């Protein structure tokens, strides 16, 4: 679903958000209980394949629907359209430590 700038309404944003969440959720479920740590971002801040793939899935959905929106993504630092009217801030997996240890407390 690609939308024109004039089509940017709260309803269309919510629809794209729902699609992005479901896409990222599919990625997280695919890797759950089999995740391997890619790297650490700090002393205890983990980064997994699931983080990166979920972020890419979210970006793909948003960019397809709203190519003129700005996207700032936590894991990749991905920034698109720096002067856009609309900005998306993405944290693809909150609770990476729990997720990587198969504790079911993450989102």
From TrEMBL:
Task: Work out whether the entry's keyword set contains Hydrolase.
Answer: yes
Pfam families in the record? Inositol_P (PF00459)
Gene Ontology BP terms? inositol metabolic process; signal transduction
Keyword Nucleotide-binding present in the record's keywords: the answer is no
Q: Which GO terms describe its molecular function?
A: inositol monophosphate 1-phosphatase activity; metal ion binding
The record's annotation in PROSITE patterns points to: IMP_1 (PS00629)
Q: Which PANTHER family match?
A: INOSITOL MONOPHOSPHATASE (PTHR20854), INOSITOL-1-MONOPHOSPHATASE-RELATED (PTHR20854:SF4)
Q: What is this protein called?
A: Inositol monophosphatase
């Amino acid at each position: 679903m690609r939308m024109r700038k004039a089509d940017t309404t709260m309803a269309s944003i919510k629809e794209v958000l729902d699609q992005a969440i479901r896409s990222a959720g599919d990625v997280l479920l695919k890797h759950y209980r089999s995740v391997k740590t890619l790297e650490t971002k700090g002393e205890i801040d983990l980064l997994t394949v699931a983080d990166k793939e979920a972020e890419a899935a979210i970006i793909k959905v948003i960019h397809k629907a709203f190519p003129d929106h700005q996207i700032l993504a936590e894991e990749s630092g991905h920034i698109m359209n720096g002067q856009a009217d609309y900005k998306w801030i993405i944290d693809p997996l909150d609770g990476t430590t729990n997720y990587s240890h198969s504790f079911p407390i993450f989102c």
